[in-house]
Amino acid sequence: MKNHNDLLIDLGKQQYFYPNRMGRVILLAMEEILGHNGVNAVLNLVNLPEYMNNYPSNNQDFNFPFEHISHLQVGLDGAYGPQAGRGLAVRVGRASLKYGLREFGSEIGMTDLAFRLLPLQAKLKNGIEAFAALFNNFTDQRVRLEREEKYIYWHIERCPFCWEKQAKAPCCHLAVGLLLETLNWVSGGKYFEVEEKKCISCGDSACTIVIDRTPMG
Fold first, then answer.
1. pTM of the model
2. I need a surface site. Which of 94, 130, 150, 167 has the fewest CB within 10 A?
3. 17-212 topology per CATH
4. Using CA atoms, how far apart are residues 2 and 23, in angstroms rounded to an integer?
């Protein structure tokens, strides 16, 4: 259970966290994409040596802070350049689904046979709602869904991916990658257009990722 609600960082701001096992998921996904040495290079670049050869424990303790998640994405940009870093962050987000389903799939019902047999639009709706509930219930991230006939809007109102960052363009590429792979998995291999349109790092009130309900092709 959460035990950090009264913790404050030195600047007087409230700290927010992912559970250890979700931080572990991100680092395992990074290792799959970058290799062991690549992960260590990124961790060294952003001054997070405590995770080198020592990923967070596989438990629900809230000890993986938002700023570390944001720093990991900054590290990808620093190590590989902004354009390549963005592509790698999307790939890490996509790879995170495999490890995330292993850890949380049964808890959110997405690995149940009954879910897999639903019609596409029902799976899309239920899958997106399940993932939003996962973040809202198991992390300090806050997601609000908005639905229209053609689009689903994934609003991250408290976002770890751009935490304490300032940017000229939306930069929550890990989140975009995770949603891309989630939709691909839910639909049995179809590709959906997913794009972040607004970002807290750009001065917006929330990070808004727009999902086209109709698969391409």
1. 0.90
2. 150
3. H-NOX domain (3.90.1520)
4. 15
Q: How many angstroms separate the CA atoms of 198 and 57, rounded?
A: 33
Instruction: Decide: 137 and 107 in contact? Cβ < 8 Å.
Output: no
- Looking up tokens 């890490």 gives 92
In DSSP notation, 96-162 reads HHHHHHHHHHHHHTTTSHHHHTS-HHHHHHHHHHHHHHHHHHHSS-EEEEEE-SSEEEEEEEE-STT
Per-residue DSSP letters for 162-208?
TTT---SS---HHHHHHHHHHHHHHTTS-B--EEEEE-GGGT-SSEE
For the chain, the structural domain boundaries read 17-212
d(CA 110, CA 189): 15
Q: Kindly report, residue by residue over 176-208, the tens digit of the pLDDT.
A: 999 999 999 888 899 999 999 999 999 999 999
Q: What is the predicted pLDDT for the residue at 186?
A: 86
Report the C-alpha gap between 140 and 18 in whole angstroms.
6
Structure tokens at 71: 């720093």
Give strand pairing partners of 99: none
Q: Which helix (H) or strand (E) holds 32?
A: helix 20-34
Total residue count of the chain as it appears in this document: 217
- Taking the C-alpha atoms of residue 5 and residue 22, their distance in angstroms, rounded to an integer, is 18
Residue with tokens 């899958």: 127
